[in-house]
């Protein structure tokens, strides 16, 4: 029996209240006023922010980039390898990343100047900020579960503003054989990105 875990063990990145989504949606999601007209051409997934699940950072960056490539919303997705190479080869880009994360941790807000610098360094008009909230095997209500939880933030790299942010998690129950957490993460990434702007026209 699958169990749904409703609380993450980390604070959500944002300060502004999130809109709770009903059954069938994400646990928490928020859209900025320009989300419905936001149509980026290129996106990069930043290295996940530091958390107690740092061992999962590379897997999560790979999974999210793969899920984005499988959508028709955005034309170009920068590979995780290219993102890593950029921050390793450019001190200015790396310093902008450190400053951006620092301001986000302190204020909960996207810093405009450093966000624009990151967009230019990565040659994208949007990027995704990630925090891994859970990546673990645990017992829940008598069941063994593998659980993955993420917070995502979509940022307009041309203005530095947050377009969309969300938190969700997914768990898979098991008796004898543990599910691969990367596989659980793939399902979670697909589910979350389905709600991310731009939404297809109906």
What does this structure look like?
The protein has helices spanning 57-69, 80-89, 91-107, 112-122, 181-193, and strands at 19-20, 28-31, 42-45, 76-77, 126-140, 143-156, 162-174. Strand 3 (42-45), helix 1 and strand 4 (76-77) form a beta-alpha-beta unit. By secondary structure, the chain is α/β, with parallel strands linked by helices. Residues 1-23 have low confidence and may be disordered. The protein contains five helices and seven strands; from the N terminus they run βββαβαααβββα. Helix 1 crosses helix 5 (181-193) and helix 3 packs antiparallel against helix 4. The chain has a seven-stranded mixed sheet with strand order 1-2-7-6-5-3-4, sandwiched between helices.
- N-C termini distance: 35 Å
Estimate percent helicity.
25-40%
DSSP strand tally: 7
Give me the Rg, rounded: 16 Å
Number of separate helices? 5
**What's the helix-strand series?**
EEEHEHHHEEEH
Instruction: Give the overall pLDDT as a whole number.
Output: 87
Strand order of the largest sheet: 1-2-7-6-5-3-4
Structural class: alpha/beta
Estimate what percentage of residues fall within beta strands: 25-35%
